[in-house]
């Protein structure tokens, strides 16, 4: 669903400047009004498969993180949502990471939200990046998607993939 859109994008205009800009990550393809992809994720163990597209009814927030148990994820990003007074009005909340289901299950228990893991989901949204140098494998960008009735209503993605600025609870839960 998302990769097909790439074929219909116009080629960028050539710059008159002899210098080319460099971006560490590809441009985003997930956009407002896109449908949430129907991809199976593992929740807490490989045998427990779920689909956010099927589970998410009405309002919700999908939060993507690059690494469970990392300082930014565990000490500020996810606790910012857990402790936000606006969380109760956000609907269902899903946390997605490209970690194995066991790691996400234990991380979820340590923080107390539901842990949802899924490399295929992150890839379907094209919100993955090559984190091999830091994490040993591709990972999820840090992001938050506000969703209503299966459609993306707002997209909050960290421009450097792992920072904690654009996807914080204060910016997303308005």
Automatic annotation (TrEMBL):
One of its GO terms (cellular component) is mitochondrion. The active site is at residue 73. Residues 30-174 form the Thioredoxin domain. One of its GO terms (molecular function) is thioredoxin peroxidase activity. PROSITE patterns: THIOREDOXIN_2. InterPro entries: PRX5-like, Redoxin, Thioredoxin-like_sf, Thioredoxin_domain. Keywords: Antioxidant, Oxidoreductase, Peroxidase, Redox-active center. GO terms for biological process: cell redox homeostasis; cellular response to oxidative stress; hydrogen peroxide catabolic process. CDD domains: PRX5_like. It comes from the Eukaryota. PANTHER family: PEROXIREDOXIN, PEROXISOMAL MEMBRANE ASSOCIATED PROTEIN 20. Thiol-specific peroxidase that catalyzes the reduction of hydrogen peroxide and organic hydroperoxides to water and alcohols, respectively. Plays a role in cell protection against oxidative stress by detoxifying peroxides. Belongs to the peroxiredoxin family. Prx5 subfamily. This is Thioredoxin domain-containing protein.
């Amino acid at each position: 669903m998302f990769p097909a859109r790439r074929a219909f994008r116009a080629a960028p205009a050539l710059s008159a400047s002899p210098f080319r800009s460099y971006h560490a990550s590809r441009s985003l393809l997930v956009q407002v009004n896109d449908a949430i992809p129907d991809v199976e994720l593992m929740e807490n163990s490989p045998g427990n498969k779920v689909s956010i597209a099927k589970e998410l009814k009405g309002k919700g927030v999908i939060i993507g993180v690059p690494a469970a148990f990392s300082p930014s994820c565990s000490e500020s990003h996810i606790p910012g949502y857990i402790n936000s007074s606006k969380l109760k009005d956000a609907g269902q909340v899903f946390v997605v990471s490209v970690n194995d289901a066991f790691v996400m299950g234990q991380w979820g228990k340590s923080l107390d939200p539901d842990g949802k893991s899924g490399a295929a989901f992150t890839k379907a949204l094209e919100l993955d990046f090559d984190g091999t140098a830091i994490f040993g494998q591709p990972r999820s960008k840090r992001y938050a998607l506000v969703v209503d009735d299966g459609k993306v209503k707002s997209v909050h993605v960290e421009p450097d993939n792992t920072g904690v600025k654009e996807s914080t609870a204060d910016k997303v839960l308005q």
